[in-house]
Specification:
Helix content of chain B: 25-40%
Strand content of chain B: 15-25%
Distance between the termini of chain B: 14 Å
Largest sheet of chain B: 7 strands, parallel
Largest interface: A-B, 22 and 22 residues
Radius of gyration of chain B: 21 Å
Structural class of chain A: alpha+beta
Largest sheet of chain A: 3 strands, antiparallel
Number of strands of chain B: 13
Strand order of the largest sheet of chain A: 3-8-5
Oligomer: heterodimer
Number of helices of chain B: 13
Radius of gyration of chain A: 17 Å
Number of helices of chain A: 6
Structural class of chain B: alpha/beta
Shape of chain A: globular
C-alpha cells in the first residue's frame, strides 16, 4: 500500500487514502483492521461503511493495495455520467461462458442468474480491485450485491465472490453500460498486464487480456493493478 | 338485459377502477350492473353516491339482495375478497363467482378459496398472467379477457412540444422502476429533453436519493394531472421496469398509444402482443436498443408523427375494438 500511495503522490495525486491496516502506513489515514469476517472478499463492504462513518466524502474510490499509479487521475467522476457506481466491466461473459467462475459453476451459469435478476445487457466479468461509489448509493450497492449473493446461496448453493456481487450491482445501477466497459475506461485503470519483458511500468499503451480469455485490448491506464 | 352483481369500485384513477368504469361503459346496453357493498369491502355513503351518479348504476348492501343460484357475481381486483370472507358468504347462497385478479400474484386467501371451489370462473388478462397462476387455476374454468380501454377517454392529439418530452405513468411503486431509473433516462443520449413522471412519492424520492434531479425533470404526485392530459404531454412513453415486476397486461401503455404517445417498452412482458416493433412502437431488450429507438424518434419528426398515428390507430382499431370486447365479456359473464 505504501508503494501504491507513493506512486500516486509522485504523479501529483494528493487525494486522501483511507486504509484499514494492522500497522501505520506512510501517507495514509489509518484505522485498525478487523479480523476477517467473511470469505470471498465480502469484508470490503464492511470497511467501506466503516470508512464512510469516519470520513464523509461525496464519492469513494476503492483501490487494491497492489496498484500502481503511472499518471494522475483527472476528471474521473465526470466519466461516471451520473451513474452512482463504477466497477470496470472487463470481459463479456458470452466470450468466456464455459470457463470456471471459481465457485463451482461456469460464467455462463452466473450470467443466466444475473439476467434472471434484472441485467438487460450482456453480463460482464468484473474485478473488485478498483471501483467507485457515490456516498448516497453505498447502501443500495450493498443491498443488491449481498442480495444476489444470498439468492445464489439459497437457490443454487453457490458462494460467489464480492467481485461477482459488485459486478451484478453495478450492471443494475449504471446508466449506459458501454461507458463502464474497459474499452471505454482503459485510460483510467486496467489489470492483468500481458508481460512484455521486464520493462518498468510507465504511462504507455500495452496489450491487455483477461487470464480467463476473451478479446485483447490496447490499454494505457493511469492506474495498473498488479495482482 | 342480464344482471351482474359487481364487487369492485369503478373510478377514474387506478388500473382496476378504470377497467371497471370502461367495462360498465362497454356493456351498458346488454348488462345491468349492481355494485355490492358488503362486510370487508364496505362502500362509504360518499363512494356509493359517487358511483351511482357517475355510472348510473345501483349500489346495494348485499343483505338487501336476492342472490341465488342463477345470479352471477363479478369480483375484480378486490384484495380482501377472499380474506374477508366475502367470497365464501356469496358462495354460500349458491351464486356463481367470476373472479379477475389483475395482478401477477394471488391475494390473501385466494388459493385456499379456489381449492374450496369458491371460484366458478377465473378471468385472465394475458397468457403471462395465465402462466403465473397455472398452479392455482389449472382446474378452474378460465377465460382470457384482455383489457378494454375506452378509446373516447384518450383521444389522439398531435404533439408539437417545443422540447422533446419523454416520460411514464404508473403507480408509485419502487418495484415498478428499474434500479437505475434516472440515469437510464439521462443516458439515452438526448441533448435537450424534458422528463415527466407520474406518480412519484416519498418512497421513490428515498430510493433515488443518490441522484440529482435537474431542471429537465418533472416528477408529479399521483393524480396531479388527469391521465389523458399527462400522456398527451409526452412524445414517447419510455417504460423500463424493475426486475421484480412482470406486467400482467399494461393498461398505461395502451392508454399512451391511444393518445398518440409512442411506446418504448421492455421485452419479456405482455407488450409485444399489442406493440408491433418499428410500427406502433418499440419493444426493447438491451439498453442500446432503447437508445436507438429514442434517438431515432427525437431526431426524425416525420417518423415520429407517423408512428404516433400508427400507435393510436392500432390501439383504437385492434386492441380496444368495442365489438370484439363486448363478445368476449358477454361470454365471460354468461353461464
Amino acid at each position: 500500500m505504501a508503494k501504491c500511495v507513493a506512486s500516486a503522490r509522485a504523479r501529483g495525486c494528493f487525494k486522501e487514502f483511507v486504509v484499514f491496516a494492522e500497522n501505520e502506513i506512510e501517507g495514509c489515514v489509518c484505522y485498525q483492521v478487523l479480523e476477517e469476517q467473511e470469505k470471498g472478499g465480502w469484508d470490503v463492504l464492511h470497511y467501506l461503511k466503516l470508512g464512510m462513518r469516519q470520513r464523509k466524502f461525496e464519492y469513494y474510490i476503492w483501490i487494491d493495495p497492489y496498484s500502481y499509479f503511472v499518471r494522475n487521475l483527472q476528471g474521473i467522476l465526470s466519466r461516471l455520467n451520473g451513474s452512482p457506481v463504477h466497477v470496470p466491466l472487463l470481459v463479456p461473459i458470452c466470450e468466456v461462458e464455459n470457463m470456471d467462475a471459481g465457485c463451482n459453476t461456469s460464467w455462463g451459469s452466473l450470467a443466466a442468474l444475473m439476467k434472471n435478476r434484472g441485467i438487460i445487457d450482456v453480463p460482464y466479468v468484473t474485478a473488485d480491485s478498483f471501483w467507485i461509489v457515490k456516498h448516497e448509493a453505498v447502501e443500495l450497492l450493498e443491498e443488491y450485491a449481498v442480495g444476489f449473493r444470498n439468492d445464489c446461496r439459497r437457490e443454487e448453493d453457490l458462494d460467489i465472490s464480492v467481485a461477482v456481487g459488485l459486478g451484478y450491482a453495478m450492471q443494475l445501477l449504471c446508466g449506459d453500460p458501454e461507458r463502464h466497459r474497459l474499452e471505454s475506461t482503459s485510460d483510467i485503470w486496467a489489470n492483468y498486464l500481458l508481460r512484455q519483458g521486464n520493462t518498468e511500468l510507465c504511462a504507455e499503451e500495452r496489450l491487455w487480456r483477461h487470464p480467463i480469455g476473451g478479446r485483447e485490448l490496447k490499454v494505457n491506464p493511469a492506474i495498473w493493478h498488479l495482482g | 338485459m342480464q344482471r351482474v352483481y359487481l364487487v369492485g369500485r369503478p373510478g377514474e384513477v387506478g388500473g382496476a377502477a378504470t377497467k371497471l368504469a370502461d367495462l360498465i361503459d362497454l356493456l351498458d346496453t346488454t348488462i345491468e350492473f349492481v355494485v355490492i357493498s358488503m362486510p370487508g369491502m364496505q362502500l362509504t355513503k360518499k363512494e356509493s353516491i359517487r358511483i351511482q351518479k357517475a355510472y348510473k348504476i345501483r349500489v346495494a348492501d348485499w343483505k338487501e339482495l336476492d342472490l341465488d343460484r342463477e345470479a352471477v357475481v363479478l369480483a375484480v381486483c378486490e384484495k380482501a375478497f377472499f380474506s374477508s370472507g366475502a367470497a365464501a358468504r356469496i358462495k354460500d347462497r349458491g351464486t356463481r363467482i367470476v373472479w379477475s385478479n389483475e395482478m401477477m400474484w394471488p391475494f390473501d386467501g385466494e388459493a385456499d378459496a379456489v381449492n374450496a371451489g369458491v371460484v366458478d370462473r377465473v378471468l385472465l388478462v394475458s397468457q403471462h398472467q395465465k402462466e403465473a397462476f397455472a398452479n392455482i387455476y389449472n382446474e378452474v374454468e378460465s377465460c382470457l379477457t384482455g383489457n378494454f380501454v375506452s378509446p373516447e377517454r384518450f383521444p389522439f392529439r398531435v404533439r408539437e412540444n417545443p422540447i422533446f418530452t419523454i416520460g411514464r405513468l404508473s403507480r408509485p411503486d419502487p418495484d415498478k422502476y428499474p434500479a437505475n431509473f434516472p440515469v437510464f433516462y439521462e443516458a439515452l443520449g438526448l441533448t435537450e429533453a424534458r422528463f415527466r413522471v407520474m406518480a412519484w412519492d416519498e418512497k421513490l424520492k428515498k430510493r433515488y436519493a443518490w441522484h440529482k434531479f435537474g431542471r429537465s425533470w418533472e416528477v408529479l404526485p399521483a393524480n396531479r394531472e388527469e391521465a389523458n392530459a399527462f400522456l398527451g404531454s409526452l412524445d414517447l412513453f419510455v417504460y423500463p421496469l424493475g426486475h421484480k415486476v412482470k406486467e400482467s397486461w399494461g393498461r398505461a401503455v395502451v392508454e399512451a398509444m391511444l393518445t398518440g404517445c409512442v411506446p418504448v417498452v421492455p421485452k419479456g412482458h405482455n407488450f409485444n402482443n399489442f406493440v408491433t416493433h418499428g410500427e406502433s412502437g418499440y419493444v426493447c431488450g438491451p439498453f442500446e436498443e432503447y437508445k436507438e429507438a429514442v434517438l431515432e424518434m427525437s431526431e426524425n419528426y416525420s417518423s415520429r408523427k407517423r408512428m404516433a398515428k400508427q400507435a393510436s390507430e392500432a390501439a383504437r382499431e385492434k386492441i380496444c375494438a368495442r365489438e370484439q370486447h363486448r363478445k368476449i365479456w358477454q361470454e365471460a359473464l354468461t353461464f
